[in-house]
Design a protein that fits this description.
With 448 residues, this protein is α/β, with parallel strands linked by helices. Helix content is 38%, strand content 10%. The longest helix has 17 residues.
Length: 448
């Protein structure tokens, strides 16, 4: 039996020969060589804050979006507080997103762990001190993907003037690149060490991982983002009935903050911008060589469409979700708390032998980056633009299954989280996310 008092420990990588049963070892199944790489986020001499120094002011903010968007935003806010020598008030969480989860920070994260991990970096308080509660808060929506100079200049001036600044949005407020190493390490220290989930979440995650790995088996975690909100946002309707496609379109038009309304699903899919359907995901795994006996844990909410996971289960019957794996009593305290359930899924995906994601959203980015940080654990991301062309050729009978599989394996030989340095782009909005690839910044290469 597992010890429920101990926090979840991420297991070391397993050998090529044992990954998910008796899969024939090939280049696509091999774990990347990582002997010369290691996580490096320790503070250097002189980076510990002076606890006796006065604060420049207080930062308030509400982390917006779903769980993983919020965790990345919180990590950015910690770094921004450090840049400005400011005091951070414990964040409030978004309760108005698609998931309408009422959970507060303390319901998802271990507050003591958060404070203790960051106590030598920034000052953190539960709430504004009484003498500051009467101060008029200055509300500000920071410019996205900004460099430290923006916060140490314009925003710091506002903070010193008003003493309390409330940020209205937190997602993508700090640039991916061009950030001092100490600040990059702080972002990772927050993301991977300070933001630990509560004991209740970790305990249940341990129980479900134990169930998945009974008899020393292994499992694949699949982030199948074929959910109503994502389909509506992207306008992707491939694989849906006309009635379902109409419902998706109506939902998109009902959400005011989604600016793009008229979307051509076929073109979006051809560009590789749609999440894979359950059927497409199953065919991808099959082409990659994963046997039908593979244990698959679905990292997602409710799969949209009347067919749900049926087509996936035709090829992979050993499919589990937190709903099917946990019993009613185990899930009772998590009912309708979607962010807490997302934290549960995140933890289970992090501990998986292989992680596959079919849409490059916030959860996929966060888990991919975390798995890289903990040892470049195998993570596979389909090249969807090329995959769509190939599967359409397969469905038309222009490709045999063997030829299709051969193409897919060659195409993804280097898409398995091998160490690859993040490169800055021309447009910060479209460059690789720091949280999806924290190398360089939080991963170092040892010199022979």
């Amino acid at each position: 039996m597992i010890n429920e008092e101990e926090p979840l420990v991420i297991k070391p990588q397993i050998s090529d020969e044992t990954i998910l049963g008796n899969i024939q070892t090939s280049n696509i199944q091999k774990q990347p060589t990582i002997d010369n790489y290691h996580g490096c986020i320790a503070r250097l001499a002189g980076e510990t804050r002076n606890r006796n120094a006065p604060t420049n002011g207080y930062i308030l903010f509400q982390a917006n979006g779903g769980l993983n968007q919020m965790t990345m935003g919180i990590s950015d806010m910690v770094a921004i507080a450090k840049l400005m020598d400011a005091t951070l008030v414990l964040p409030s969480l978004d309760h108005k997103s698609f998931w309408t989860d009422p959970s507060d920070f303390k319901d998802i994260f271990d507050v003591k762990q958060f404070k203790m991990t960051l106590q030598d970096d920034i000052d953190i308080v539960d709430s504004l001190p009484s003498h500051m509660s009467v101060v008029i808060q200055h509300e500000k929506d920071p410019i996205s993907w900004s460099k430290p100079s923006y916060y140490q200049g314009e925003i710091l001036s506002l903070l010193k003037k008003h003493k309390v600044v409330k940020f209205l949005h937190t997602d993508s407020r700090l640039a991916n690149n061009g950030i001092p190493d100490a600040i990059q390490k702080l972002r990772c220290r927050t993301m991977y060490e300070a933001l630990r989930y509560t004991k209740a979440i970790n305990d249940l995650a341990n129980v479900l991982i134990y169930k998945l790995k009974h008899n020393n088996e292994h499992y694949l975690a699949l982030h199948l983002r074929f959910e109503k909100d994502m389909l509506a946002f992207t306008g992707c309707t491939h694989g849906l009935s006309q009635k379902e496609a109409n419902e998706i379109e109506a939902f998109r038009y009902s959400v005011k903050r989604w600016k793009v309304k008229r979307i051509k699903s076929k073109k979006t899919r051809q560009k590789g911008n749609c999440p894979l359907t359950p059927r497409e995901a199953a065919i991808f795994l099959q082409a990659m060589g994963f046997p039908s006996s593979t244990t698959v844990y679905i990292v997602a909410g409710e799969i949209y469409g009347q067919n749900g996971l049926d087509e996936f289960k035709e090829k992979y019957p050993n499919v589990f979700t937190h709903t099917s794996l946990a019993n009613e009593d185990e899930l009772k305290s998590f009912k309708n708390l979607h962010n807490q359930l997302a934290a549960l899924d995140y933890t289970i995906a992090l501990a998986s032998d292989v992680f596959v994601y079919t849409y490059d959203g916030n959860m996929a980015k966060a888990i991919r980056g975390h798995r890289m940080f903990t040892g470049f654990q195998k993570t596979i991301y389909p090249d969807k633009k090329k995959f769509v062309k190939l599967i359409d050729e397969l469905d038309k009978g222009h490709l045999s299954l063997d030829k299709f599989s051969s193409h897919i394996k060659k195409l993804h030989a280097n898409r398995t989280s091998r160490p690859k340095r993040r490169v800055a782009g021309v447009n910060p909005k479209h460059e690789e996310s720091f949280y999806a690839n924290p190398f360089p910044g939080c991963i170092c290469e040892s010199k022979s």
